[in-house]
Amino acid sequence: MESSGDTSEIRTVCAAAEAKPELKKLLSFKVYKRRWFVLLVLCLLNCSNATIWLTFAPVANQSAQYLKVSLGDINWFSLVYIVVAIPLSFGTTWMLDSVGLRITLVLGSWLNMLGALGRIFDLQWDGRYQLRYPLVMLGQTLGALAQPLIIFTPTKLAALWFPDSQRATANTIASMSNPLGILLANVLSPMIVTTSDQIPKLLLIYAVPACLICFLATVGIRSSEPPTAPSASAESSASEPFVQGFKLLLRNKAYLVLLLCFGSGIAVFTCFSILLEQILCVQGYATDFAGLCGALFIVFGILGSGALGLYVDKTKKFIEATKINMSLSALACIAFSVVSLMPRQKVAVATVCSLLGLFGFSIYPVVMELSVESSYPVGEATSTGLIFISGQVLSVLYITILQALTKRMADSPLSTCGDEVLSWRVPMMVMAGLCSFFTCLFVFFFHTRYRRLEAEERATYGAENHRSNGGGEDAPSGDT
Fold it and tell me: Are strands 124-125 and 407-408 parallel, antiparallel or unpaired?
C-alpha cells in the first residue's frame, strides 16, 4: 500500500508531466525484458551462420577427400558468402528498414536452417553419378543468402529495443557473436573430423542448433519492435525511405570518409584472417600455431569490443575511441608485417596478433553505431549495410592485389607450406601501407555531430534546452 509521501510525490511528478510535454514524453519511454530474448536469438543465429560459413576451412583436406573434389573447390564454400553478400546486401538494407526486423530475422533463420540441412544429404546412382558437392554448395549458398539478413541487424535491433545507455553494448554483443562462431568452427571442426568419413557427423552437429534457433526465432519473436519506444530516436527509426536515405548518404561527407576508411579496415582484417596461415608457413610456423594466432586475434577482439562498448555507452565518445583504436591497430598491422617475416618469433607473432584483434577487431560495433550517429535519420540498416558492402568489395580487391604481388621462392628451408612457397614481403608492406594511409585519412578528415543523440535530446528535453547546451543549428558540423 502506498504511503502518503509516495502518493504526494507521484502526484507532483504527474502534474509536472502535464505542465511540460517533454517531461511527459520522457516518462513514456519504456524498456522491456523481452529485448534480451530478441538479442539472444540474434546472437545464436549470427554464431550459427558463422559456423556454417567456415565449416570446411579448418578441415579442407578431409572435406576434399569426402566430396571428391579439389582444395580449390572447397575454398568456394567460403568464397560464396562474399560473392552472394555483395549484390544481396542492397535488398537486405531495404528489407530491414521497410519490412521490419521480425520478418528479416525469421527469414534469415529459415534460410540458415535450410542451408544447414541441405548439406547433410547426398545422392548417388550406381556409384557413377553423385551430387554430394552440388548439394553441399546449395546449402552453403542458402547460408550465404541468410548472412546479410543476420549481420546487418545488430544496429537496428539496438536502436528499436534498447535505450541510448545500452545501445552500444547491445550492438557489441550481437556483432561479436559472429567472430565467436568463426572461433567455434576453427576449434570444433578439427576436433570432430580426423578422417574424411566423419564429415557427415560434422554437418549434422552444425545442423542441430540451426534448427533450434529457427524455432526460437519463428515462435519467440512476435514483433519487430516493442509496444512503446525505448528512446526518442526509436520512434522515428528509418524515417527516411531507402532511396532518399541513400541519396542523403551520398551527400554526407563525414559518412563517405567513414565508408571508405572503415571499409578498407574490414578488407585488411579479412585479408589477415584468410592469408594468415599462408604467410606464417613460409617462416616455418606450423598450421597449429597459425590457428592459435587466429584464435587469439578473435578472443582479444571480443574482449576489447566488450570493454569498448561499455565505455562508449557511458561516455558517448564514439569518435575519440574509434580514432585512437584505429591508430593503434595501424601500428599493430605494421608490427605484424615485420615480425611475420621473421623465423622463430612465436611470442612476438602471437602478441602482435592479439594486439591487432584487441585494437582493430574491437571497434567494429562502435563504428556501426558511429555510422548511425553521423547519418541519422537515415535507417540504421542502410547506413551500416553500405559500410559492410564497402568492406566486402574492398576485401575481394585487396586479396586479389596481395596475391598478385607474391613471388615464388626458389629456396625456403624453413617452409611448412608444401610444394608452393611464396614470398609475402611485398604484400605485407602494401597491407601495412593501406592500413596506415586510411587510418591517417580518417583521423584527419572525419568530423561529425552525433545527430541521433542530438535528435533524442531535442525530442526529450526540448529544443530550447538543447540549444542552451551548445546544440542546435550552431553546432559545429564536419559534414553536409
Answer: unpaired
**Measured between alpha carbons, how far is 167 from 180 in angstroms, rounded to an integer?**
20
Would the CATH topology of 30-235 be identical to that of 239-448?
Answer: yes
The DSSP letter of residue 124 is E
Cα torsion through 354, 359, 365, 366, rounded to 10: 160
Question: What's the rounded mean pLDDT across residues 21-32?
Answer: 56
Contacts of 255 (CB under 8 A, 6+ apart): 249, 371, 374, 375, 383, 448, 479
What is d(CA 30, CA 43) in angstroms, rounded to the nearest whole number? 23
Q: Domain spans of the chain?
A: 30-235, 239-448
CATH architecture assigned to 239-448: Up-down Bundle (1.20)
Looking at 3.90.180.10, 1.20.1250.20, 1.10.10.10, 2.60.40.420, the CATH number of the domain 30-235 comes to 1.20.1250.20
C-alpha cell at 275: 592469408
Question: Over 50: is that where the pLDDT of 190 sits?
Answer: yes
From 410, 399, 437, 405, select the one nearest 424 (Cα to Cα): 405
Tens digit of each residue's pLDDT (9 = 90 or more) over 219-243:
999 888 888 877 666 665 545 566 7
Q: What are phi and psi of 414, to 5 degrees?
A: -90, -10
The pLDDT tens digits of the residues spanning 383-442 come to 888 888 888 888 888 888 888 888 887 667 777 766 667 788 899 999 999 999 999 999
Closest of 156, 150, 9, 144 to residue 79, by C-alpha = 144
- Measured in residues, the chain has a length of 480
Cα–Cα separations (whole angstroms), residue 122 to 179, 207, 209, 227, 297: 29, 15, 21, 46, 36
pLDDT score for 23? 43
pLDDT tens digits for range 353-399: 999 999 988 888 888 888 888 888 887 778 888 888 888 888 888 88
Q: How far apart are CA 162 and CA 177, in angstroms?
A: 18
Residue-wise pLDDT for 247-263, tens only, equals 888 889 999 999 999 99
Contacts 24+ apart (CB under 8 A), 222-225: 222/102, 223/102, 224/100, 224/101, 224/102, 224/103, 224/160, 225/100, 225/101, 225/160, 225/161
* The C-alpha cell that represents 422 in the structure block: 611464396
